[in-house]
Amino acid sequence: KKAACAVVAIIGSLPRLSSLQLADVSLGHAGANILASGLRHLDSLRRLDLSRCALSDAGVEEIAQAVCHGPDGVSSLLLPDNGLKSADALIAAVAAGQHDVKKGQGLVYLDICANPCVATHAGVIRGKLDRFVTSVFC
């Protein structure tokens, strides 16, 4: 939670930030919630790496809702190895924020590998996201 507060304070002063890598920062659900609130105002962000950040399903959903908002949202979202048990909330958040993937707008690359939901449902997840994301790595 402290790490997320510090990051939000810093990114607030960097309105033109285009890439943010927070891999291996243990954010958890509370930290994801705080981070999402700061990311909502960062229109220039195109790449977000939250690999191995101990995010919950709800935390991943919060982050996706904050950064997947059409042509002005991130184009690359990395969420591997976060313990994601169900991809349903992530899929809904990505789908709600996407516009025209065929025009290269919005989320182009999504990495959700090494999450528990992928081990048994990779094909289903990929099939549901194909309409909204150009490349899904799982």
Short précis:
With 138 residues, the chain is of the alpha/beta class. Helices cover 41% and strands 11% of the residues.
Structure write-up:
With 138 residues, the chain is of the alpha/beta class. The chain has helices at residues 2-11, 28-39, 57-67, 88-97, 116-129, and strands at 19-21, 47-49, 76-78, 109-111, 135-137. A five-stranded parallel β-sheet has the order 1-2-3-4-5, with no helix packed on it. Strand 1, helix 2 and strand 2 form a beta-alpha-beta unit. Helix 1 runs parallel beside helix 2. The termini are far apart.
* Residue runs with pLDDT of under 50 for 5 or more positions: none
Treating each run of at least 4 consecutive H or I residues as one helix, how many helices? 5
- How would you sum up the major sheet? 5 strands, parallel
Please report the total strand number as a whole number.
5
The oligomeric state of the chains shown is single chain
Whole-number average pLDDT? Answer: 89
Order of helices and strands: HEHEHEHEHE
Which percent range describes the beta-strand content?
5-15%
What portion of residues is helical?
40-55%
Strand order of the largest sheet: 1-2-3-4-5
Supply Rg.
14 Å
Structural class based on helices, strands and sheet pairing: alpha/beta
Give the CA-CA distance, first to last residue. Answer: 28 Å
Shape estimate: globular
